[in-house]
Write a structure and sequence with these properties.
It holds the Pfam family FtsQ_DivIB_C. The protein is α/β, with parallel strands linked by helices. Helices cover about 35% and strands about 25% of the residues.
Length: about 270
């Protein structure tokens, strides 16, 4: 009996000390929220690349009309400068008004600029026109190319067949600045074109008044003429013609003719 009990006790001990099965798998379950977050991040990065970095939504072509080949190349270069960066390269993020403003400020020779976006082809069309060059303007020893509206187009250059004007006022100018009003520019053009009917040629046009109300003309007859830029230029040219006829009849030499006072003419 005692032996049987010992056997049973030993059996029980063996059962108590029987090793349990261990799991050798180190895999951890990923929480559902973290899984969704990973999907969201990957999806966002994919969309960012597709929308901003890839060529799918970038501008395909810049079409330019109204300019020469050389000017078109220069304008395209300005468009490239404007489009630097991920957002600005994207067709949908390009602002037409901002691009037009950028082109006008960086290319003063442009008179009109119109930007059109073509959504189907992801193209940008630019229609541009140049300013009408009319004057070679000189101020403080510097030379400028100026258009008919008085806007400085280029610095340090002159153009053939443009009217040469010396501005005696001490002004430092930059491209895009205005040297005078459109009315003043028109006045100078009319005086320049109608002056030959007096029988003399213009040697030099000089603006002496800081408010640009006076115009001094040096002629090939060794005399000067003073004009009032606020009055009709053609009527002043007619008055000048009458005085010159009288001077010729009297066979006199003159130093100057002053037309600045309305209804009066002074000469010496």
């Amino acid at each position: 009996m005692r032996r049987n009990r010992k056997r049973r006790q030993v059996g029980r001990r063996q059962l108590l000390h029987k090793p349990t099965k261990r799991s050798f798998s180190n895999k951890k379950k990923i929480p559902f929220k973290a899984y969704l977050f990973r999907i969201f991040v990957i999806g966002s990065l994919t969309l960012f690349y597709w929308f901003f970095v890839s060529s799918a939504f970038q501008v395909k072509e810049v079409k330019i009309t109204g300019l020469s080949d050389e000017q078109s190349i220069q304008l395209k270069s300005q468009v490239s400068d404007f489009s630097k960066g991920f957002f600005k390269k994207n067709y949908y993020f390009i602002s037409k008004s901002s691009l037009e403003k950028h082109l006008k400020s960086n290319m003063p020779e442009l008179k009109e600029v119109t930007v059109t976006k073509e959504a189907k082809e992801k193209d940008i069309s630019i229609k541009a026109s140049l300013r009408d060059i009319a004057f070679n303007w000189q101020a403080m020893g510097e030379k400028y190319v100026v258009d008919r509206e008085g806007v400085v187009v280029e610095m340090g250059k002159t153009k053939e067949n443009a009217i040469n004007v010396i501005d005696s006022n001490n002004l430092l100018l930059r491209p895009g600045d205005r040297v005078g009003t459109p009315d003043l520019m028109l006045f100078i053009e009319k005086v320049n074109s109608s002056f030959p009917q007096t029988g003399y040629k213009i040697v030099e046009i000089n603006i002496t008044n800081e408010f640009k109300r006076e115009l001094k003309i040096k002629t090939d007859g060794n005399f000067q003429v003073f004009f009032d830029t606020t009055r009709d230029p053609l009527s002043q040219i007619e008055s000048l013609g009458r005085v010159l006829k009288e001077v010729k009849k009297e066979n006199r030499t003159i130093e100057y003719i002053d037309l600045r006072v309305e209804n009066r003419i002074f000469y010496k």
